[in-house]
Structure formats: structure tokens, C-alpha cells
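Subgroup meeting minutes
Present: P.N., E.W., G.H.
Scribe: E.W.

1. P.N. recapped why we're keeping a running log of single-chain structure predictions: easier to compare across weeks, and new members can see raw inputs and outputs side by side.
2. G.H. added today's entry (88 aa).
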Amino acid sequence: MARHKSAQKRARQDAKRREHNRAIRSRTRSVVKDLRTAIETGASGVEQQLREAERALRKAASKGVVPKGRASRLVSRLHKAAGRAKKS
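Output recorded in log:
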């Protein structure tokens, strides 16, 4: 455990940020997973879920929870998968 006052504060901040980042990451993963299952099953409302997933990914990237490049790559792949599902 931290001994200095500043180190104790830092530990508190880190714990708070870790929980915050964890919640954002979890939400993002859930939204992406829901979209992927919707694409696979051919459910309706894929476009709405795609918008929601893209928004969650971009927001996570802007907050630094997910690297911007990874978010862009995922968004691109999701759009591509949704487009393929739409055609078939």
C-alpha cells in the first residue's frame, strides 16, 4: 500500500479510473457482441445496432479506453459484415 499522501491519492484515482474504463469497455464489448449476433441471425434493426456500436467504439476511443486505430478497424469490419449480411 502507498505510504505518501500523494501516492495514496494516486492509488484512489487509479482505482476510480480503472472502474470507469472497465464499465466503458464492457458496454462497448456488449454492444459489438449484440451486433455480431444480429448480423449472424439476420435479425432486423441491424443498422440501428450498427450505429450504436460505432458510437460506443468511437466514444471509448475518444476517452482513451480503446486505441483509436483499433476502434476504427472494428468499425470498418462491422460495417463490412453488415453490408455482406444485407446483400444476402
